[in-house]
């Protein structure tokens, strides 16, 4: 259980923060930037929920919880030492990726195939979901970069990859099942 009695601690005043294993690192480290970006994404998902109806709002709530799991996973770097802890670190699992895939398939089932790229926009919800999509892609790029220098849970990377796809398809659903998608017209303003 998490108990936060005091919000400020002054321990980060010199530009460092603690990872989940207690190690202190610079606040601008790649690992902190990676899980900080997933936190940023979570905030954007919260804004999207303001525009979402019941089923979509519930799915976005699940994603927000998953993004906290992802942040917990990414802030604890010692992948090979999990078994020595009193409480093993929370890790993303394949089932979370599979759930996103099933939801993508279900949402995509009723959509007409795309014949053009689409511009981010349409309804307020679709526009916000496109913001979520692009921030998810940035979080994924950071996680992939981090994995070149430190151990990263592959399920966390897979989750971020599927999540951006989920947001893309959900944005089409939010645009009246793709009927009000804003299509890209190559060279339209030449």
Automatic annotation (TrEMBL):
Give the record's family classification.
Answer: Belongs to the Cob(I)alamin adenosyltransferase family.
Q: Is Transferase one of the keywords? A: yes
Q: Where in the cell is it found?
A: Cytoplasm
Q: What is a GO molecular function of this protein? A: corrinoid adenosyltransferase activity
The catalytic activity, as recorded, is:
2 cob(II)alamin + reduced [electron-transfer flavoprotein] + 2 ATP = 2 adenosylcob(III)alamin + 2 triphosphate + oxidized [electron-transfer flavoprotein] + 3 H(+); 2 cob(II)yrinate a,c diamide + reduced [electron-transfer flavoprotein] + 2 ATP = 2 adenosylcob(III)yrinate a,c-diamide + 2 triphosphate + oxidized [electron-transfer flavoprotein] + 3 H(+)
Q: What pathway is it annotated to? A: Cofactor biosynthesis; adenosylcobalamin biosynthesis; adenosylcobalamin from cob(II)yrinate a,c-diamide: step 2/7
Domain Cobalamin adenosyltransferase-like, residue spans: 7-173
Q: Which NCBIfam families match?
A: PduO_Nterm
In short, the EC number is 2.5.1.17
Which InterPro entries does this entry report, sorted A to Z? CblAdoTrfase-like, CblAdoTrfase-like_sf, PduO-typ
Q: Which UniProt keywords apply?
A: ATP-binding, Cobalamin biosynthesis, Cytoplasm, Nucleotide-binding, Transferase
The answer to keyword Nucleotide-binding applying to this record is: yes
GO CC: one term? cytoplasm
UniProt protein name? Corrinoid adenosyltransferase
Q: What is its main location?
A: cytoplasm
Pfam families, alphabetized:
Cob_adeno_trans
Its BP terms in the Gene Ontology are: cobalamin biosynthetic process
């Amino acid at each position: 259980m998490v108990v936060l009695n005091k919000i400020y601690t002054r321990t980060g005043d010199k530009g460092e923060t603690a990872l989940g294993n207690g190690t202190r690192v610079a606040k601008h480290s790649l690992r902190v930037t990676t899980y900080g970006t997933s936190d940023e994404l979570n905030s954007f998902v919260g804004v999207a929920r303001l525009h979402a109806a019941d089923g979509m709002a519930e799915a976005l709530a699940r994603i927000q919880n998953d993004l906290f799991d992802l942040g917990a996973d990414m802030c604890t770097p010692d992948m090979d030492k999990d078994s020595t802890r009193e409480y093993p670190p929370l890790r993303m699992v394949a089932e979370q990726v599979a759930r996103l895939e099933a939801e993508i398939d279900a949402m995509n089932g009723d959509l007409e195939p795309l014949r053009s790229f689409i511009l981010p926009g349409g309804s307020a919800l679709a526009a916000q979901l496109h913001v979520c999509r692009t921030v998810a892609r940035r979080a994924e790029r950071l996680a992939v970069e981090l994995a070149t220098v430190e151990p990263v849970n592959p399920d966390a990377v897979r989750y971020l990859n599927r999540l951006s796809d989920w947001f893309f398809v959900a944005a089409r659903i939010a645009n009246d099942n793709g009927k009000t998608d804003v299509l890209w017209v190559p060279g339209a303003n030449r």
